[in-house]
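Problem 3 from the worked examples.
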Amino acid sequence: MGGSDIDMRRLSKAMSYALRHRPEEFGLSLDGRGAVGLGELVDALNARGRWPRPVTPDDVAWVVANGTKQRFALEDGRIRARYGHSFSGRVELEEAEPPDVLWHGTSHEAWEAIREEGLQPMGRQAVHLSADQETALAVGARHERGGEPVLLRVDAASARAAGVIFWRGNESTWLAGAVPAKYLERVG
């Protein structure tokens, strides 16, 4: 499993592209939960990519099991991305009770709009929130080039009580449709 002749990081990126962003380019039809048969994904990856050998179901399972960001779920022979979808159409996620506080890292430029409009999904299907400050800062650093990102404390308990719906992406990622500015507090 996870043979060294296949670049697993490249495979993970291809899987993300196929399951999170452009399934149609791979000829995939995802179900309402965003899942497709494991064999279908393997066939699509092999048809679309240049690999040193054919990708196998074991290679894909290795990426699912060993990915640091827990982007994928493999259940009953079907695979799906847990979060990060940007294609049109809605992926059905199961609503979940979030921790009282969540975190969001962003750029100074984006903060100007966020403090007025709140957190919006933008090009994704949901806003991404972090369970801890460190993860939020790491995410924010990708958006704030060359400086310290803006860290936002999200009053998830109050937002949920007011009707904001939350979904669990993985151990460290939570999702919400949108979070009004009144539930956000800039830290630092």
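Problem 4, a separate protein:
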Amino acid sequence: MKYRNFDFSSIRNHSRELRKNMTESEKILWEELRGRKPAGYKFLRQHPILYKGNLIRYNYFIADFYCHSKNAVIELDGPVHQTTMEYDHFRDSELQYLGINILRIRNDELINIKKVLSRIESFLNKLPDNK
């Protein structure tokens, strides 16, 4: 891909700002994902993913958690996602077009973190390795 007219420093700064200001739910899940805890899979938090927005330039999404080895994204959905369903659908379709697998988890599911981690591990184990 050729990334003309793209300000990578602003994307990097946006990601860093989101990492500094993670939600409580993101902090809870990050503690469980960091350090390759779930079955040895490495995750990045607040990871930018570029996609072709139009003919002139690229756009980006920032995934809550990204696993490169499985080309997978885990998104936490809080109450705000009840009002952004159309955008979430668009985002999911763009990510799927890029070959990225998405697992959405509602914040309230984190009450049973063991069940969530089991679901994440099962999701990742079903995916082929990213080449």
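Solution to problem 4. Residues 113-126 form the longest helix (14 residues). The two ends are 17 Å apart (CA to CA).
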